[in-house]
Write the structure tokens for this entry.
Amino acid sequence: MKPKPLLLLNIGQLLTLRSATGGPRRGASLSELGIILDAAVLCLGGKIVSIGTTKDALRDPWLKKNRKKIIEIDCGGRVVLPGFVDSHTHPAFTHPRLVDFEKRISGARYEEIAEAGGGIRSSIDGVRRVSKGALARKVSAVLADLACHGTTTVEAKSGYGLSLVSELKSLEAIRAAACEWAGTVVPTFLGAHVVPPEYRKRSQEYVDLVCSEMIPVVAKRKLAQFVDVFCDRGAFSAAETAQIFAAAEEHGLAVRAHLGQLSETRLGPLLRYRPASLDHMDQVNDEDLPALAQSDTVATFVPGANYFLGLAKYPEARRFIESGVAVSLATDYNPGSSPTLSVPMAMSLACTHMKMSPAEAIAAATINGAWALRLARRKGSVEAGKDADLAVFDVSDYREIPYWFGTNRCVLTIMNGVPSDSLSGGERK
Ligand code: NIG
Ligand code: FE
């Protein structure tokens, strides 16, 4: 069913994120939000058709004539921005990892917990046992929660099944949940998350399985747009990652990787595969920044993981931004290192711990998130012709979005022209 025509008016600040130039935001342009005061947005058939001031919108002859047929949302001076593009999440799991949580509080490190049988491997059992329907319901609940926090596009990884059957089940559950959601889901195959226990000390055999059995089926059934690899100490080496990237390329799938979370990996050999994004990036060699800045690859920071693992150190965002690297921000929603669905929380951490300005954090989580998913043609900014993905925040200044941390100020999300929630107090007609 086509979404009904929609008019948002009396927007205190509309952050359009429109840009004159193509390509992801870099350097100073990361701070340009393209703000229109006292604004209005008209959406038809799930697309944005015009933006401007409320005054101009109300004078428009077409609008005057058709006003009765249009759903009007009076934003009452609130802030409206493009729905967040959360370009890194792991929603296909069954249980929170509370034992890991307690162990870490008592002083154990993420890697120690993983070596002792906790960590990613301890999420495998649940996913292998659960039915596809039950897993899809878990993912659906996550999608609903994301929308409540202002996210309208999300990348969703498999990666807790780690066998052909359970990885396919995870991707099918993601697809089933995506079909029920008004927002946009970008599925990613993360068969190379860790080596599963039955392949212990036979990691090359597992990599071969990922490359020669899993990737071909995932590609054939069109279950994923990207192949991801956890390239780090204790997971997969750079050489193994390159092998997996080559297999993905051969089967027409784009690539991305978890990189530099626990240890440094040199970027050169992996940039050859033109990854859409390299994520975490806590440890990156300075000498690699010029090549990264020259490329279209986005560096995606996930400070929720640093926060939840209790780390003192966060990614050095300023070093990347000043080198001209395109950066984005994501939640990394997962049961081990970042159980948060809140992009505003990730933005708040980026401001307080990584010294990104509120404007930079917003651009990183919208337009540059869209670039990190190769969706910038449709997503990430409020411009005529783009998908009608919007978030309304109950604040009067955009800087309040990362300022009020730990509380949800998103009151309405519009996904592909469909409003998800309502403003309270009968302001919506
Ligand atoms: O992005 N680093 C690898 N993957 C996740 C953690 C997954 C987990 O601990 O379950 C991350 O932090
Ligand atoms: Fe992750």
In short: The longest strand covers residues 6-15. Residues 422-429 have pLDDT under 50 and may be disordered. The longest helix spans residues 203-220. Residues 90, 119-120, 123, 230, 258, 261, 305, 332, 334-338 surround N-(iminomethyl)-L-glutamic acid (ligand 1) (CB under 6 Å).
